[in-house]
Amino acid sequence: MKRLSLIFGIILLTIIGFSQTKNINSSGSNLVKKNADGNVTVTGNFVNLDVDSVYMPGAIAQFHRIDSIDVATAGSWITVKFDTLIANESTYGYNFNSDSTGFITSFSGDTRVQGCGHWIWRGADNANVKMYLRVLINSVEARCLQANDSRGKKTSDDGTLVYTGTIHHMAHQEIKLQYQVSNIDMDWEGSAVFDNPISFSINFEKMNDH
């Protein structure tokens, strides 16, 4: 209890939600204040704390591109434009930029980034095709967020190219995903076998503040 009093006497803690809160008392006034946005601000010293659980979600976000991409350019990097925010898998920290070709961070720190691209080969049998994915932070390529594949394809082959890694960023910087292929018959499209096919996914998870 002394440790809690020390911690909460020094900092301002914003708690996103309480679950099964039984009793909270304070040596000062306005210990718990519910803000207009629904968040709860906690200040002061705890003298009695009886809480079963406190829910404090981290910054996470999930975005998809559902529409397929009919590739028109080979040998150049093309930025993926996303079209869907998965609201029930997202909290805060990452938002679409003005044209949905990237994402703006709201904090400075480290983020884990992962996702995939679903490809389909619409060219001839026995063609050797190369494909690449990379993540950029403020137009600079992230070294640990590169993925590529190169192999012979048969007509109507499909598959998934996965990427995962971490980036360091400052608040309000922009994250983008780009692809490159060696042949324009390599398109991006989710398989019709799935109930909810998508072309690309990207998700973010905050690791820390810097």
**Count of separate DSSP helical elements:** 1
C-alpha termini separation: 29 Å
Q: What number of domains?
A: 2
- Per CATH, which architecture of the largest domain? Sandwich
- The CATH topology of the largest domain comes to Jelly Rolls
Q: So what's the overall shape? A: elongated
CATH class value of the largest domain: Mainly Beta
Spatial extent as radius of gyration? 23 Å
> What is the helical fraction, as a range of percent?
under 10%
Sketch the major β-sheet: 6 strands, antiparallel
Strand residues, percent: over 45%
Secondary-structure class: mainly beta
What is the mean pLDDT? Answer: 84
Give the uncertain stretches in residue-range form: 1-23
Topology:
Layout: H1 2-10, E1 13-15, E2 17-26, E3 32-34, E4 40-42, E5 46-55, E6 60-65, E7 78-79, E8 84-85, E9 94-96, E10 103-105, E11 109-121, E12 127-137, E13 140-153, E14 158-169, E15 174-181, E16 186-188, E17 200-209
Antiparallel strand pairs: 1-4, 2-5, 3-4, 6-8, 6-17, 7-15, 9-10, 10-15, 11-14, 11-16, 11-17, 12-13, 12-15
Summarize the structure.
4% of the residues lie in helices and 55% in strands.
Structure description:
With 210 residues, the chain is mostly beta strands. It has 2 domains: 2-55, no CATH class; 60-209, Jelly Rolls. It is built from 1 helix and 17 strands. The chain has one helix at residues 2-10; strands at residues 13-15, 17-26, 32-34, 40-42, 46-55, 60-65, 78-79, 84-85, 94-96, 103-105, 109-121, 127-137, 140-153, 158-169, 174-181, 186-188, 200-209. The strands form 4 sheets. Strands 6, 8, 11, 14, 16 and 17 form a 6-stranded antiparallel β-sheet that branches. Strand 3 (32-34) and strand 4 form a beta hairpin. The longest helix is centred in the first third of the chain and has 9 residues, at 2-10.
